[in-house]
Amino acid sequence: MEEKKESFGSRIGFILAAAGSAIGLGNIWRFPYLAAKYGGGIFLVIYIILVVTFGFSLMVTEISLGRRTGKSVIGAYKHADARFGFLGPIAALVPFVITPYYCVIGGWVLKYLVTFVCGQGAEATSDDFFGGFISTAGQTSVFFIIYAALTAVVVIFGVQKGIEKVSKILMPILVLLSIGIAIYVMTLPGAGEGLKYYVLPTFAGFTVAKLLKTVVAAMGQLFYSMSLAMGIMVTYGSYMRKQDSIEASTRQISFFDTLIAIIAGLIIVPSVIIFSGGDAAALNAGPGLMFVTLPKVFDSMRGGYIAGAAFFILVAFAALTSSVSLLETMVSIVSEKFKLGRIASTTVCFIIVIVMGMLSVLGYSSWSEVTIFGYQILDFFDFISNNIMMPIVALLTCVLVGYIVKPEYIEDETTLNGETFKAKGLYNIMMKFVCPIFMIIILLTPFFVEI
Ligand code: PHE
């Protein structure tokens, strides 16, 4: 079923669905730990520059490609140029790598949600709580499987519409609650230092290698957070109505996606500095950062456990809308390729998610000595998807658009409703020169500096 006839009923419907996919753990869990690790302010500035240049150009490209060809990721590239048909399957492979470990982190969120809802938030503040949890394979796998099953149930029963409705209400609450928590954090003693670290770029001790690493990390985060370079936006574009503005939609989606990431960082990065007594090493905690730091923030707050419970419920919802879009993509690929029904293909994908996800679970527990190129298993999946597979897809997309079908192919689609493509100049330069060169640098960097 390659021809997609149905479309979103309204522009806002499209924006919400795309933003629902984009806004998730990437913003709340991943962005803050990268910002903390890669120098705070510098990471923030680099990230914002990348969003308005690369992120914008790639998102316009993917949505236009989908809408113009009317095909999902597997067919769209082939339709644009037969020689680029192979790109569809490569992009389609990315969700197979991301979904399993995404569900593992979703399981961590569930664990915290249950802990806070059951009024045991105080336990989560101890330094060993997070470490103790992820190193017990039994517990982590139970929460992981429950989270993956929830995602699969939504995909099977197709209750997305319901989820979308609920998240339309919950997302604004998440934003407001996060702003409230961020303001609270700003009132804590020591917050000034933390805020300075987060927003002011400091170039002291910055080497070229470090700058490169920061750019590579920010770029990987950009793909991940904006759900780019894996065909999701191509597929969504194929459902978009012809009269709606691609350029304006892209700006709005990237704005909200970035805003939420920045607010999450505003809570987490200064808090790390506050609660570690200014210990810079604490900023390097990596994937566990949000889970280790947030309970301390809630603990210090009056009524903090209620805020904590509410926060984790909202984060779980944000994550669920993203994992549903990831699993949905896997399911549509499997059902198209193997001509399976919805339930059968969801079952197949669920099994893949469980098997691969268990590798990530074990990688942090029973098999914690196992590393691949120096990475824990979960971090390795994260690395190959964000730093290898997505840059390859992005690079080839730029070659396709910049040199084969030419940027006019995309421009025609963006101007279909009579508007002008305002960022045309920037877009052309990005697709032809800056993006491809950058992608090559990103792909080569791991060979020269240790990421
Ligand atoms: N963008 C989502 C997030 O930030 C993750 C995601 C990636 C979702 C790819 C769908 C596809 O959490």
Protein traits:
single chain, 451 residues, mainly alpha, Hydantoin permease, 0% strand, disordered N terminus, binds phenylalanine
Low-pLDDT windows of residues? 1-5
Distance between the termini: 41 Å
Label the overall shape: globular
The biggest beta sheet is recorded as: none
Q: Helical segment tally?
A: 18
SSE series: HHHHHHHHHHHHHHHHHH
The oligomerization state is single chain
Please state roughly what percent of the residues sit in beta strands, choosing from under 5%, 5-15%, 15-25%, 25-35%, 35-45% or over 45%: under 5%
Explain what the structure shows.
The protein is mostly helical. It has one domain (11-384): Orthogonal Bundle (Hydantoin permease), CATH 1.10.4160.10. It has helices at 11-22, 25-37, 41-69, 73-80, 87-117, 127-134, 137-157, 160-186, 191-199, 208-225, 232-238, 246-275, 289-299, 304-338, 342-363, 377-404, 408-414, 424-448. α9 (191-199) packs antiparallel against α12, α14 packs across α15 and α15 packs across α16 (377-404). The structure holds phenylalanine.
Q: Secondary-structure map with pairings?
A:
Elements: H1 11-22, H2 25-37, H3 41-69, H4 73-80, H5 87-117, H6 127-134, H7 137-157, H8 160-186, H9 191-199, H10 208-225, H11 232-238, H12 246-275, H13 289-299, H14 304-338, H15 342-363, H16 377-404, H17 408-414, H18 424-448
The structure holds phenylalanine.
Brief digest:
The chain is mainly α.
